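Annual report, structural modelling task.

Input specification for the GCB complex:
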Amino acid sequence: MRRDIILNNDWKFAKNEQLAKVYPNDWQTVNLPHTWNNIDGQDGGNDYIRGTAQYVKSFNTSQFDITDSSKDIYLEFRGASMSAKVFVNDKQVENHCGGFSTFRCDITDYIKGGDNKIAVLVDNSENTTVYPQRADFTFYGGIYRDVYLVVADKNHFDMNYYGSNGIKITPQVNEKNAKVTCEAWVTGGDAVVFSISDGEGECFRSKAAVSNGYAKTEINIDNCHLWNGIDDPFCYDVDAQLEFNNEVVDCVNTIIGFRSFFVDPRKGFFLNGKSYPLRGVSRHQDRLGVGNAINLNMQKEDIEIIKEIGANTIRLAHYQHSQEFYDLCDKNGIVVWAEIPYITNHMDEGYDNTISQMTELIVQCYHHPSIVCWGLSNEITVGGKITDNLLKNHNDLNLLAHRLDSTRFTTMAHAFMLDIDEPIVRLADVCSYNLYFGWYLGELEQNESFFDEYHSKYPDAVIGFSEYGADANPELHSSRPVKNDYTEEYQCIYHEHILKCINDRPYLWATHVWNMFDFAADGREEGGKKGQNQKGLVTFDRAIKKDAFYLYKASWNKREKFVHLCGHRYIDRCEDKTPIKVYSNMPAVTLFVDDKEFETKTGDVVFDFEVPISGIHKIEAKAGMCSDVITIKKVDSPNKSYFLEEAEPVINWFDKDDIKQGFYSIKDTLGTLKENSDTKAIVDEMMNKMIASRGDVAKSANNNAGLQKMLDKIPLESLIKQAGKAVPEEMVKQLNASLQQISKKSGNS
Ligand code: GCB
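The model returned the following structure:
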C-alpha cells in the first residue's frame, strides 16, 4: 500500500544572490511551507525580490524505511512558486512551471540506499512564459505548500498525469438519481474496486477489470442525498482500491457531491432545479507576515469568516488555491469559481503555460462539488490589443476545459473598458465584468447603467459581476465620506449602493465582492498603507472586520441574528449632529444615547440615525436580544489621524443652483458635450491639455475605443475630479463658464 511521508521539516534555504556569500553550512534552516517574500513582498518600496532560491533536503532512506527496492518512489509538491527545477542526487528530475498546482516527480531510479539529497531551484523572477507576470498582487516565491515522499507499490494509480490522483469520478444527476461514471488510470494491477459511501452506513460498490492501464464502471444511486449549497452540503466518500491477484495494492480517495446546476440569462443561477442567486466574495490566499505560506488553521479561519458573512459563493482568484481550501468549500456548501492566473497581459510565449495550468487545475480539482466553472482569464485585454494569438489562446483553453470536463461551464472576467460588443466578451460560456465605477472612475450609478445596457442588448447572454470594491483603511474616517478617501465610511456607502444594484438585478448569475480580505500588492502605496490592496471587508491579518463586512452579513446571513453599530473606530467627531449607522438582519433597531431611548427605526439591513452630540456619549443599538455599543466624542477640531495628509480637499465647484438650466455645463456627460460641435471643441481643447500634462496614461485612454465609449457616459465634472491637480480650479471655472454660454437648443452649430 502507498505511504505518504510528509517532508516539510529541516530544509536548507538560500537565495541565489546570497549563495556566493554563504557557505553551505551557513544556509538558513527552514520548515515548509515557506516563502522568501513574506516581508519584502508586502511592504511597498523597492526591496521586493523576484529571483531564484535553493532549497535542499538531505535524508537517509533508513529514516523513512524505504530501503525496499520493490517500491516506486515519488516526490509530491503541492505548490512551489512560480517555477521549480527538482534535482535528486544532483540529477534533474523535473522542471515544473506554474506556482499554484500540485506536481509529482518519479524519483525511483534516482534515489539510492543510504544518504540522498533533494535540491529544488525555485524561481519567481520575471519572464515571458509563465503566468502571472503582471497583476495587482504579490507573486511570492518559495515552496509554500507541503511536500511529500510517496512510496507506492509497483502496481499503483497513475501519478504522472498533471498531478491528478489517477481517478475520474463523474456524477450525472437527474433530480434525485445519480449515475456515477468511475474511471481509473493505473500502472499494473488487474482490477479496481470503486466504493461510494454516504458515511451513514450506505455503500455502493462496483469492480472494473483493468485493460491497457484503464478501468471503467458505472454506479447508479437512486434517491441520493443532494449536495445543496450552504443549506445542506452533503458529500459522499469515494474509495478506489487497486487489486492485483485479489490483493489490494493501492488506494486513493476523494469526496464528491451530487448536484445539478444551470444558468439562465434572465434568472441567474439554479442549483438542483431551484433559483440560487450566487452572492459572495473573492479571496486571495495570502496573509500579513506569512505571505502565501499559510497553514490549515488559517484556511479554516478564512472559511469561517466567509461563512459568517453568509456568502454562498467564492471566486478563488486569481490562481489555483490549495486542495484543502476547495475541500472546505465542498464541506460548507460554498459554490466556487476556480481560475488560472492568465491575467492582465497576454504573452505570446505563454500559450503552453496556460494550457498546462488549466489542465492541472481541472484534473486536480475535478471532484470538488463546490466548483461550477473554470475561469479562462482575468482582464486579459488590459495589457494590449485583442490579437489573433490572444483569441486562439482563449479558444483553445475553452475547448480544453470542455474536453476535460463536460459537466461545468467556462467563464471570463472582463475589464470595464472592454467594449460589450467585442466578440471576445461572449467567447466563454458565461461572462462577467469587473467594474469599479464609484471607485477608480465614474459614478456609482454607472454600475447599474452598464448592466442594464448589456442585458437589454444581449438578453440571451449570461452576465455576472465578478469584481467590485472600494479600498478602506480602518484608521480613516469621515462624516462626509467621498470617493477615494479610503475611509471605512465611504466603503460602506459604496457597498450599500452596489448591494442594491445587485438585489435589483436577479439576472446577474454571480456577484463577488473584491475582496474578502486585504492582500499584498507590493507595488501599491496609497490609502495610508504601503504594499496592500485594501479593498478587503476584513484586514490583511484577519483581525478587523470593517463596517462594510456587517452590511453583507446583515443582508446574507440568515442564521445568526445580530446588530452592528458602525464607527467602533470613529470616535472623535466635529459636527453637532453626527450620522450613526447600524446594520442588522432584524426588522427594527432602537438607538439609545447615554442609556436613554433615542429613536426606533424599522427597515431592512441599513438603519441610519442622526444624533446631536455635545461631549462623550455612549451609543447603543438594540434589536431583539442583540445589542452593540460604541463611544463617540464631540471635538472642536478634526482628528488628523482620521484622514490622509495628502488628501485632496472635498471638491464641490458648483452647486446645482449655480448652473443655468437649458445650457451646457460640466455636469453634462462627455458624450452629450461631444454631440454639439461648439461644446466638443471646448472639451477637446481641455482634453488635449490634460493629455499633455498626464502623459502616457491619458494618451492610452484616448486611443482605447472601448474606454472612450465608457468615458462618454461620465459627467465631465466627475472626470475632472479624477484628474486631480492636472486641472486647476480656475480652469474648471472657465470651462464651465464657456459651456454655460451655449444653449442646449442651439443645435449642432
Ligand atoms: C481588478 C483586478 C484585481 C485587482 C483589482 C483592484 O480588476 O482583477 O486583480 O486587485 O482590480 O483592486 O484594482
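The first strand starts at residue 3 and ends at 6.
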